[in-house]
Amino acid sequence: MILFIQCVVCCLLFTLAILPTQYKDPINMIMSYPPKIRQRVEELPQYKETIKQRGKIHIGKKILGLIFFVIILSSVAYLSGCRSFNTTFTHVFVLFFVVNIYDLIVLDWGIFCHSKKLRISGTEDMEKEYKDYMFHVRGACIGIVLGLIVALLSGCIIHFCFVV
Q: What is the pLDDT of residue 10?
């Protein structure tokens, strides 16, 4: 039951971290948009410099996010009673996987693909590209791999810090 509650809370926190920023200014999340939309935005003069700056920052944010999730999720697993590599790995992977699937179905397919408010000015005619469901499936597959990495590192932290 505690894992279920944690999954719900993580989905809620993830939504609060993503949606307000994206609704306020969709260009903030341009690196998560389908490639054809990014390409069109890069061609628009009002966004040319913005895109270059965001591309450089994007990778750094992903790496810091990965480290942040390893620390936070290993702590959550530990506080939930996980005291071995296997239980921590499983707990963290389930949390990450549930949020990843929630992101795919609710945020990507349900909101992103259909919300006119998330259209970037100058790309409103790209309805087909905004509804590229397979782009989001590929992203979810990458998310599963990242989830495995986060779970593996979290399991290692618990194992080496508390078991050995």
A: 96
